[in-house]
Write a structure and sequence with these properties.
The complex is a heterodimer of chains A (543) and B (359). With 543 residues, chain A is an alpha/beta fold. Chain A has a single domain, classed as TIM Barrel. Helices cover 33% and strands 23% of the residues of chain A. Chain A contains 18 helices and 26 strands. In chain A, strands 6, 7, 8, 9, 12, 13, 16, 20, 25 and 26 form a ten-stranded parallel β-sheet that branches. In chain A, a hairpin with a 4-residue loop joins strand 10 and strand 11. The longest helix of chain A has 16 residues. The radius of gyration of chain A is 22 Å and the shape is globular. The two termini of chain A are 34 Å apart. In chain B, 35% of the residues lie in helices and 21% in strands. In chain B, strand 3, helix 2 and strand 4 form a beta-alpha-beta unit. In chain B, helix 1 packs across helix 11. The longest helix of chain B has 14 residues. Classes of the chains: A alpha/beta (543), B alpha/beta (359). At the A-B interface, helix 1, helix 2, helix 4 and strand 18 of A face helix 2, helix 3, strand 5, helix 4 and helix 9 of B. The structure holds zinc ion. Zinc ion binds next to strand 7 of chain A. Chain A: This is Formylmethanofuran dehydrogenase subunit A. Chain A: Pfam families: Amidohydro_3. Chain A: GO terms for molecular function: hydrolase activity, acting on carbon-nitrogen (but not peptide) bonds.
């Protein structure tokens, strides 16, 4: 099958291709223009921007905590089903099916669920397998698990720790590793109620810093393409910029990714003790080249916070809206589900503005990633609106009219004139995520790349343009036309290609027998348990 | 070996599936009662969507109560592995179904290893019906008025409020609680009503103001809880979800299978059960489609199709109360009986108007 995407404005920064032209696709792959062959299908892309399919590096789309959030909030989905678009959370994409459909319609073709509990990997992968069209990937959570903390306490060798990380990634079918408030979940089980980077985890005698450094070293040593993905301590607390700064400093030249930096950019100045520290943190990111970050942009409206930072979620229970929440003490991290409504009052407005400041003040689009930490800052369905805010200073000015003026005065946002270009957007949401995750086959439109292509019809309204793609190709198949799904297909979950060390498997067997009274089989699963053809795709480690 | 019947007549599976599809297509109000694994549930939900049917757990009142604890108020919960490794005080709230005996006995025969040296595990029982775990000693906290009264009194007493009828041995409990690093309360919807579950979460919430505590969910039916999870990610709702109007609607009262059958609302009952003996008689005027492990037609069923038991006759994914999550089970023997999922899909393929998009 030969497809020609004809006459579009191609935006492919990786290959330096910017300008009007054709894009050719044969079966699943992008190919050079063939000579003397007629396409089986021609898609008229005149007046359209043509980019690679977008990649979301951090969106909570499936797994135990996400499903618990659905269970806790049936009223949101009920409101949605009969009257889409009109109700709170209406665009949340609440079911697995809707998640795939809504992402695809926006031209997203790969999405990473960043918080998979390794012990519940099967549940996560079953949910992801029910998300249609797009490819998925997961990050396995480590850093509050007894096995790792015990190894650190007992001064295990770096090689042994690498073997354990490798075993975890392999058995949970993850693409990378995330650490969430390192040590805090373990400390919370010992009734610790606040936890910082150099605090000690009771029982294990190690610190958050030590855990992060240990995992960073192991991830780097193993050649996992994605740097250690860090959810820092003290999320949401005024004063958290110090924690974020300490964590960035601890990168010490090795790659480190800090998740949803917006939630750590709250200063404690002003009458209300709540101010913007975006300038300070953006400057730090700009001058620390080994650091990448994503934003976690806040948008106004009803949402639900879903986090494996159980300590933070426990503390936030009081602000639950509606007034119900779930807190889980898991085998390692556990988690918490707290529904929340962001309003355009002083606090909400400041959070909204801080996210935009970070987007606009961090200079290198290769190191700042586009997220709302779905659904924590806002549902992923708000992305088109955020693209609008980033690409148009007029759109920002208009939006600023509807937020708290007192909050804006504490930020630099009104003074920022930068406008993201299509090229910046293509870097931030395509090229850079592919590079960060080690996905060489996507994020660009060069010959040989996987034919994940998003075509957007240009018009006055940027948000509308990104909300409903004119065409989307996934693996070369036309799956979306005029903003609606035309063809159903099942994507894969991308996992790291790694072979666990045999001695470590033996150790894990003994550990599970001794500590849980169960054989390791209980914690593992065959690929066939997913019951889909080829549920996984493999990604290689760095040499 | 006969594996499918229309009435009492043995037929090929395809004929039975076609007949089942005909009945579904003709039904004005079909209701499904499930007792099956994850993939059986996925297939049942897809069929229910195509046929406009309601999905509930078989004998699902207790499962619905457990789901309501999440949908209505949330709470604090703990993983079973963490209970084994951390809980130095286990409070068994009310009676538990026998399928949890093994796990409780395991708690009784082990000690926590994550709370320092020489840790012990102590047991308390709430209400008159809670059973002592294995050979362990346990102190009973009870008062007149049943489980709800006992939990209400216990919560009030823990909060330092005066009560007219306190629970027995409260002082011993208060002492144990003060000394405990991580107390855990078990609960199950079979013998604990909605009010008892709410009281229990109230108590656990109160305790967490000063110390840690949590609650361990021991599901009334592990299959029921597994199906609840699958339904939730597929439709946005737990079981007791119906598709009569094309989209999923959740209503724990309206879509209670027992009520729908008893009140004559349902005109078709599709049952997926592990054991044919579980399958109830169809009320008058209700067509029954029975999927169960059986060597003969289910009495009164319009269609019977034999299926295997998940994890025994075929590989399966099931909810494990022991893990607190889904687990893959390898079949003990390579049985000839097909999984429910395959049969449900075959029925769906025979429906006249097939949903073009999978759910
Ligand atoms: Zn997140």
């Amino acid at each position: 099958m030969l497809t020609r995407v004809a006459g579009g404005e191609i935006v492919d920064p990786v290959n330096g291709r910017l300008g009007t032209g054709d894009l050719w696709v044969e079966d699943e792959t992008i190919v050079p223009p063939p000579t003397g062959r007629k396409p089986d299908l021609t898609l008229d892309a005149k007046g359209c921007v043509v980019m690679a399919g977008a990649i979301d590096i951090h969106s909570h789309i499936g797994g135990g905590n996400v499903n618990t959030a659905r269970l806790l909030l049936p009223e949101h989905h009920k409101a949605h089903a009969p009257r889409p678009g009109a109700t709170p959370l209406a665009q949340l994409g609440w079911t697995t099916f809707e998640t795939g459909r809504l992402y695809a319609q926006m031209g997203f073709t790969t999405v990473v669920e960043p918080a998979m509990s390794p012990g519940a990997a099967l549940h996560t992968h079953l949910e992801l397998a029910d998300i249609p069209i797009i490819d998925k990937a997961t990050l396995a959570i480590l850093g509050n698990d007894d096995f790792l903390l015990s190894m650190i306490r007992d001064n295990a060798s770096a090689a042994m720790i690498e073997d354990y990380v490798s075993w975890t990634v392999a058995s949970s079918r993850a693409l990378g590793v995330k650490v969430i408030n390192a040590g805090a979940a373990a400390a919370f089980k010992e009734n610790v109620r606040s936890f910082s980077f150099d605090d000690e985890v009771p029982f294990y005698g190690t610190s958050s810093r030590k855990i992060v450094k240990t995992l960073q070293k192991a991830v780097t040593g193993l050649g996992v393409p994605h740097p250690l993905h860090v959810h820092c301590n003290n999320l949401g607390i005024p004063g958290a910029p110090d924690t974020a700064a300490e964590t960035m400093a601890a990168a010490e030249g090795l790659p480190l990714h800090l998740a949803h930096l917006q939630f750590y950019s709250y200063g404690s100045e002003g009458k209300r003790g709540f101010s913007s520290a975006a300038t300070r943190l953006a400057e730090l990111v700009n001058t620390t080249p080994e650091i990448t970050i994503d934003i976690g942009q806040v948008m106004f409206g009803q949402t639900v916070t879903i986090s494996s930072d159980v300590l933070r979620q426990f503390t936030a229970r009081g602000s639950a809206n509606p007034r119900k929440s779930v807190i889980i003490d898991g085998d390692a991290n556990g988690g918490g589900i707290v529904p929340f409504r962001y309003s355009n009052d002083f606090f909400g407005s400041l959070q909204w503005a801080i996210g935009l400041e970070l987007f606009l003040l961090i200079e290198d689009p290769w190191r700042v990633f586009f997220t709302t930490d779905h659904p924590n800052g806002a549902p992923f369905t708000t992305y088109p609106e955020i693209f609008g805010l980033l690409m148009s200073r007029d759109a920002r000015a208009k939006a600023m009219e509807a937020v708290s003026g007192r909050a804006l005065k504490l930020t630099t946002l009104p003074a920022l004139t930068r406008e993201y270009t299509f090229e910046d957007i293509a870097v931030m949401t395509r090229a850079a995520p592919a590079k960060l995750l080690g996905l060489k086959d996507r994020g660009h439109l060069g010959p040989g790349a996987l034919a994940d292509v998003a075509v957007y019809r240009k018009g006055g309204d940027i948000a509308q343009m990104f909300r409903s793609a004119a065409f989307v190709l996934k693996n070369g198949e036309l799956v979306v036309e005029d903003g609606a799904v035309k063809k159903m297909r099942w994507g894969r979950a991308l996992r790291l290609k790694t072979t666990p060390d045999k001695a470590m498997v033996k150790r894990m067997e003994a550990y599970h027998q001794q500590r849980y009274g169960l054989s390791l089989d209980w914690f593992d699963f065959p690929d066939s348990a997913i019951q889909r053809e080829q549920p996984f795709g493999e990604v290689s480690c760095r040499a | 070996m006969a594996v499918a019947w229309i009435g009492d007549r043995s037929v090929p599976v395809d004929d039975a599936a076609r007949k089942a599809a005909e009945l579904l297509a003709a039904s004005l109000c079909p209701v499904f009662s499930l007792d099956t694994d994850v993939h059986g549930t996925r297939a049942a939900l897809a069929l229910a969507r195509s046929a406009g049917a309601v999905c509930d757990q078989f004998d699902g009142a207790a499962t619905a109560r457990e789901a309501a604890q999440y949908t209505d108020r949330g709470g604090l919960f703990i993983a079973p592995g963490e209970v084994r490794r951390r809980a130095d005080l286990v409070v068994i709230v009310g009676a538990l179904p026998a399928h949890h005996d093994e796990l409780i006995a395991e708690f009784a025969s082990t000690v926590p290893d994550l709370t320092g040296k020489d840790a012990e595990r102590r047991f308390f029982l709430v209400g008159d019906d809670a059973k002592t775990p294995g050979k362990a000693k346990a102190v009973r906290l009870a008062c007149e008025g049943g489980l709800e009264a006992a939990l209400g009194a216990l919560r009030a007493q823990c909060a330092g409020r005066q009560v007219t009828h306190g629970v027995s041995h409260f002082d011993a409990f208060a002492e144990a609680l003060a000394a405990s690093r991580f107390p855990v309360f078990t609960f199950c919807g079979v013998f604990a009503g909605a009010l008892a579950l709410e009281m229990l979460q109230g108590l656990v919430g109160d305790l967490n103001r000063k110390q840690r505590a949590s609650a361990l969910h021991l599901p009334a039916s592990p299959n029921g809880w597994g199906s609840t999870l699958v339904s939730t990610w597929t439709t946005g709702f737990p079981l007791r979800t119906g598709f009569a109007r094309g989209h999923a609607e959740f209503d724990p009262w309206r879509f209670d299978e027992a009520r729908m059958l008893a009140e004559g609302e349902a005109d078709l009952h599709l049952v997926v059960a592990e054991d044919a003996r579980q399958v109830p008689a169809a009320p008058k005027g209700v067509h029954m489609i029975a999927l169960a492990k059986t060597a003969k037609p289910v009495a009164g069923a319009a269609v019977t199709i034999a299926i295997g038991v998940p994890g025994e006759d075929h590989d399966a994914v099931v909810y494990s109360s022991r893990l607190g999550t889904l687990a893959a089970m390898t079949a003990k023997a390579s049985g000839e009986l097909p999984p429910a999922a395959g049969i449900l899909r075959r029925i769906g393929e025979n429906l006249p108007e097939r949903e073009s998009l999978p759910c």
